[in-house]
Amino acid sequence: MNTNNPIGNAVLSRVGTFLVPTRKPFRRLRGHQKRAHPTFDPVRFVAWILVLLATCCAPASAEDFQPLQSSKAGWQLLPQFSDEFDGAQLDTAKWDNDVKDWGMWSWEPENVWVVNGRLNVRMDYIEHKRGWQTLYYKSGIVKSKAPPIRYGYFEARIKAASKYPGVGPAFWAYRQDAGEWTEIDFVELTQRNRDVKVVDTNTHVFEQPGFAGALPLQEERSWMAPWDPRDDFHVYGCEWDEHEIRWYVDGVQIQSRRNHHWHQALDVVVSMGLRGDLKRTASAEGFPTTFEVDYVRVWSAPAKVAKR
C-alpha cells in the first residue's frame, strides 16, 4: 500500500467509485501483537458521502447552459424566453397560450400543457365555427410575452408528432407590426409530403419599409435528416445576428443565409400547424396528435434585447 496515502495504512474498501476507510490501522502492543477492534460510524460515513456527492455531482444551473454549437462564445441565457418546463403547469406569466386565431385551425389553451418536464403541444380534429367558416382542427401554441428580441441564439429539444403527413411542429419567431412583418423559422418538422425526414428552416418577409423587390418574400430551404424526427428528441438551433442566420441540428450547422432583411425584433413561438392535403380535405385519421418539447433556451449578448 502507498505509504503516502493521507488516510494512513487504513484498510480501504470501494464504495461506488470511491475508496473509503473501513477500520483503524493496526497498532503494536508491548510483548505481543493485537488488532484494534474494527470501528465504523455509519452516520459520519453517510454524511461524508453526501458532502462528496454534493460537491462533485451537483447539476448545472440553467444559467450555466450554453448553445450546443455556436461560432461565438459568452452567450447570456435569457430567462424571459427560456423554459425547462420543470414546473407543474405552463408558466403563463412567460407564455401566451391563447393567441388570436388565424389560418385553417384555431388555437386553444387546452392544447398546451406541461407534464414530466416537457411541453406538450396537441392538434385535434374538432369541427367548429369561426364566423361564417366551418373549421375542423384545433391546435396549441405558446408565444413569448417578453418584449421582442432582435438577434440571439435560439435552441429547442423537440420530438415530432406521430401524425404524418398533415401537421407541422414548429419552433420559430415572428412579429407583425405596423408596416413590418417578418418571420424566421428555426425549425419546421414533418410538413413535406415527399419525405418525413425533411427539416425546414425557412424565412419570410411579408411587409417591410423600403424593401427592394416583390413581397411577400418566402424562402424555403430544406435539409434531409438521416433519422425520423418522430422517433426521438433532437436539438434544433438557430444563430441570428446582424450579418448572417445559421441553423443547426444536434450541434451541426446545416444551413446559413446572409441577413439582408431580418432586423425586426421578434416574438418566440412554439406551435403546430396544419399542412398538405388536410388543408383541402379534412380527416379525423391520426388525431389527436402531440409533439413534445424538452426545453426552449434563448441566449443573447449584452444589449441585444430589443425594447418596445
What are the key terms here?
1 helix, 308 residues, 10-stranded mixed sheet, 2 domains, Jelly Rolls, 9-stranded antiparallel sheet, mainly beta, disordered N terminus
Provide the CATH top-level class of the largest domain. Mainly Beta
End-to-end Cα distance:
69 Å
In this structure, how is the largest beta sheet organized? 10 strands, mixed
Based on CA atoms alone, the radius of gyration comes out at 27 Å
Structural class: mainly beta
- What is the beta-strand fraction? 35-45%
The sequence of SSEs as H and E is EEEEHEEEEEEEEEEEEEEEEEEE
How many helices?
1
Extended strand count: 23
Task: Characterize the structure shown.
With 308 residues, the protein is mainly β. The chain has 1 helix and 23 strands. It has one helix at residues 42-56, and strands at residues 12-15, 18-21, 27-29, 32-34, 76-77, 95-96, 106-107, 112-115, 118-130, 133-139, 141-144, 152-159, 167-177, 180-189, 198-200, 203-207, 217-219, 222-224, 234-240, 244-249, 252-258, 267-274, 289-300. Strands 5, 7, 8, 9, 10, 12, 19, 20, 21 and 23 form a 10-stranded mixed beta sheet that branches. Strands 6, 11, 13, 14, 15, 16, 17, 18 and 22 form a 9-stranded antiparallel beta sheet that branches. Strands 1-2 form a two-stranded antiparallel sheet.
